[in-house]
Amino acid sequence: MRLACHNRHPHILSIQMSRYRRIPPKDARLARGRRLFNQGAFFQSHEVWESLWHEVDGPERELLQGLIQLAAAYHHLRRDNLAGARYLYDRGRAKVASWLPTHAGLALQDWLAQIDEQFARIGSDCPPARGAPRVKPVGRNPERESKGRSPQLCRARSPQSSTQGRKTVDKENGKAYLA
Fold first, then answer.
1. Does 38 reside within a domain?
2. Overall number of domains in the chain
3. Contact, 29 vs 43, CB < 8 A?
4. Phi, psi of 58, deg, nearest 5
């Protein structure tokens, strides 16, 4: 980061962020965004990847933009905005697809195949599936990475009750029960 004077207006200072040509190999934000996505914190993963996207000025900027758009697509999907989710999926998928099979330590090919399968099912009662695919790092034990529950994408659509986590709300009388 450096301060710079404007040529026409020397009294105005601006901060110019230094940009990387590539994603820095030891930058923790890529892994942090992956972990947040895997936990179902799609908006937060979008924010973390976006902070890195602002600093990258090379071709990998497109990969980061694709990751950001796919995270935002799942955020929209969770909020039942199917049109917004589909729009961001289409755009993000195209950007990530040019970096297959792996890049920047991420196993992109398997992840994108699972996303494709889920978005192909949009329009059913529970839009693509009950959980989002997990982004796996390259060269790690997939068994260890796949432990835990997949993040939930859609709410139950039972006519009598809706379930969120362990709490069940009966829609007829409005009372809450633990499941």
1. yes
2. 1
3. no
4. -120, -165
Instruction: Report which of 124, 13, 117 is spatially closest to residue 132, judged by C-alpha positions.
Output: 117
Q: Are 105 and 137 in contact (CB under 8 A)?
A: yes
How far CA 103 is from CA of 42, 96, 131, 137, 160, in Å, comes to: 20, 10, 24, 9, 46
Query: Has residue 63 been placed in a domain?
Result: yes
CATH code of the domain in which 8 resides:
1.10.3450.10
φ/ψ (deg, to 5) at 142: -65, -30
Q: Which of 14, 35, 31 is nearest to 23 (CA)?
A: 31
142: in domain: no
Query: Which residue type occupies 81?
Result: N
Residue 41 burial (10 A CB sphere; 0-12, 13-18, 19+)? middle
- For residue 72, what are the domain limits? 2-137+152-178
- Please check whether residue 147 lies inside any domain of the structure: no
pLDDT tens digit sequence for 87-146: 999 999 999 999 999 998 899 999 999 999 999 888 655 544 456 788 888 875 544 444
Helix (H, G, I), strand (E, B) or coil at 114: helix
